[in-house]
Specification:
Shape: elongated
CATH class of the largest domain: Alpha Beta
CATH superfamily of the largest domain: Elongation factor Ts, dimerisation domain
Structural class: alpha+beta
Number of helices: 11
Strand content: 15-25%
CATH topology of the largest domain: Tetrahydropterin Synthase, Chain A
Radius of gyration: 26 Å
Length: 291
């Protein structure tokens, strides 16, 4: 049967899909818009699965804290491209996940992802044509103090900081410092033995160590390791807003102590595949000709 333009328009408005896809769905259902929507929803799972092997290493990180600073959550939601990461539909999806994780005080993906959320993800995959991934979520809850958050303006870095004592504003300032400087640990004693030993190997291999007596090497190494630990430990770092004071000195002055921090950066740890876009386009053209 002939499908009217108004019917196609209605289906597009209700699904957000392309005109040709909507028209084809309506033709297949003889203009039954509800059945067309149902069929498109069934098909979305297949379309999402076809995109699941694409690397989603762009996206956003988001954070939300309670008004009283008692707890907060931080999440990473990935897309394939930075362009989609700025899409209103994608950002709305990320916001809804954040609200859900916050309400549930979720500290794991299992507490956030359910059938309803997965259906919404697959529908968005179908609409935008990219793989999407809810990668990680973490909760920070203050046992005897406050939690502060800082999200960089482009939503690529988000930090939660827990303080014992202090204020939410102080915790936010420390979180901003963590976002900018990226310390590895809170205190020097928190640095793992594995990291320290790796740094020692690097120092030993440096040219100015060659030919020196072992005791001289050890003495030089102690100084350099201590420097490395101070540079990578939050409380020992010069505060970005006032380099005359360390972060540890700043919080101590306010009667507080840094307990922990969580820093998420978009795509960190994800190995991006090198895409041959010319080959991909050629494959899509060939597939369209054979169908």
């Amino acid at each position: 049967m002939a499908v009217s333009a108004s019917l196609v328009k209605e289906l597009r408005e209700r699904t957000g899909l392309g005109m040709m896809e909507c028209k084809k769905a309506l033709v297949e259902t003889d203009g039954d818009i509800d059945t067309a929507i149902e069929n498109l929803r069934k098909a979305s799972g297949l379309k999402a699965a076809k995109k699941a092997d694409r690397t989603a290493a762009e996206g956003v990180v988001v954070a939300k804290i309670a008004e009283d600073g008692s707890y907060g959550v931080v999440l990473e939601i990935n897309s394939e491209t930075d362009f989609v990461a700025r899409d209103e539909g994608f950002l709305a999806f990320a916001g809804s996940i954040t609200d859900k994780a916050f309400a549930a005080k979720a500290g794991s993906l299992e507490e956030v992802i359910d059938d309803e959320l997965e259906s919404a993800r697959q529908a968005l995959v179908q609409k935008i044509g990219e793989n999407l991934n809810i990668r990680r979520v973490e909760k920070v809850e203050a046992a005897n103090g406050v939690v502060g958050a800082y999200v960089h303006s482009n939503n690529r870095i988000a930090v939660l900081v827990e303080l014992s004592g202090g204020t939410v504003e102080l915790a936010k300032d420390v979180a901003m410092h963590v976002a900018a400087v990226n310390p590895q640990v809170v205190n020097t004693s928190d640095m793992s033995e594995e990291v320290v030993n790796k740094e020692k190997d690097i120092i030993k291999a440096q040219p100015d160590m060659e030919g020196k007596p072992e005791q001289i090497v050890e003495k030089m190494m102690v100084g350099r390791i201590n420097k490395f630990l101070k540079e990578n430990s939050l409380v020992e770092q010069a505060f970005v807003k006032d380099p005359e004071v360390t972060v540890g000195g700043l919080v101590k002055k306010e009667g507080a102590e840094v307990i922990r921090f969580v820093r998420f950066e978009v795509g960190e740890g994800i190995e991006k595949k090198e895409e041959d876009f010319a080959a991909e386009v050629a494959a899509q053209v060939a597939a369209s000709k054979s169908s």
